[in-house]
Amino acid sequence: MSVKTITFENFKEEVLECDKTVLIDFWAGWCGPCRMLSPIVDQLASENQNIVVGKINIDEQEDLASKYGVMSIPTLLVFKNGEVVNKAVGVISKNAMMDLVK
């Protein structure tokens, strides 16, 4: 499954109402660690059909970043049944990311 671009307009449908586990990567184009994490997020998305993976650009979606208390990027949030169930800040390994969504 490919990574979805999440915006304020599609957040409710793609994240809150999704019946699968959703991993959201809060990022920005100017963020070096975000660029390091991005290929790992992309790989996780392509290898795991049972997980929905999305990215939220904090520069374009400030309201969503603020709503979920994103103070540093990259920040990964895991949603299940519309609720945040796990969180990681900074660059993490693929194995750590898999543990995050389990």
Query: Mean pLDDT score, rounded?
Result: 96
Overall radius of gyration:
12 Å
Q: What is the fourth-level CATH superfamily? A: Glutaredoxin
Major β-sheet profile:
5 strands, mixed
Low-pLDDT stretches are none
Record field, number of beta strands: 5
Distance between the termini: 17 Å
Using the coordinates shown, work out and report the CATH topology: Glutaredoxin
Count up the domains: 1
* CATH class category label: Alpha Beta
SSE class: alpha/beta
Determine the number of helices (DSSP H or I, runs of at least 4 residues). Answer: 4
Beta content comes to 25-35%
**Which CATH architecture would you pick?**
3-Layer(aba) Sandwich
Largest sheet, spatial ordering of strands: 1-3-2-4-5
3D shape: globular
Percentage of residues in helical conformation:
25-40%
Order of helices and strands: EHEHEHEEH
Explain what this protein looks like in three dimensions.
With 102 residues, this protein is of the alpha/beta class. It has a single domain, classed as Glutaredoxin, CATH 3.40.30. It has helices at 11-16, 32-47, 62-67, 94-101, and strands at residues 4-5, 21-27, 51-57, 75-80, 83-89. It has a five-stranded mixed β-sheet. A hairpin with a 2-residue loop joins strand 4 and strand 5 (83-89). The model has no long low-confidence stretch (mean pLDDT 96).
